[in-house]
Specification:
Aminopeptidase; 4 helices; 29% helix; single chain; 7 strands; globular; 7-stranded mixed sheet
Length: 164
């Protein structure tokens, strides 16, 4: 497993992962019909950095890192992670989250915050807790799950300064 910063042409390998996850509508609040052009802006252009995980030259995971808030909140970053359906359950999300925490510190961030984790995304919540993120907020019925209806969204946070 290799992780590296995204380069030109990588979005063609990211797009099937992004499209599948967003179309399912179970974990991200992006519109389910997000176009490839819109997705590239969201995942590649808007973040500060984007990374991919490759296995044998195939992109199996990706994450971005960006500043969560400007000004007085600019020491806190936000990340988004996606793993291809065929590569789930193999530790790729954990690998990316650990990598992102190191990158965050290297970029000068002091904390990491996940703004909107659907409470139904139990695997992610278990992983974030295992990696010592705390649930610091609950947004009642904030996420409209395609089959379960309105469910809560969690805000998760980790202070990174001296803590990985």
């Amino acid at each position: 497993m290799n992780i590296r910063e995204v380069i030109d042409g990588d979005f063609d390998g990211i797009w099937p992962i992004f499209h599948n996850i967003v179309f399912m509508g179970e974990t991200y609040a992006y519109p389910r019909d997000t176009s490839k052009v819109q997705a590239q802006k969201i995942w590649i252009e808007a973040p500060r950095k984007t990374y991919v995980v490759e296995e044998e030259g195939i992109i199996v995971g990706t994450y971005f890192i960006k500043t969560n808030q400007a000004g007085a909140g600019s020491h806190v970053c936000n990340c988004g992670y996606m793993v291809s359906a065929t590569a789930r359950g193999r530790g790729i999300a954990s690998f990316m989250c650990k990598h992102s925490q190191k990158q965050a510190r290297d970029l000068g961030y002091k904390a990491m915050q996940f703004n909107f984790v659907a409470e139904t995304n139990e695997a992610a919540i278990r992983l974030w807790h295992k990696l010592t993120f705390e649930t610091v907020g609950r947004l009642p019925k904030a996420f409209n799950h395609p089959s379960l209806g309105f469910v809560d969204a969690l805000v998760m946070y980790k202070w990174l300064d001296g803590n990985l």
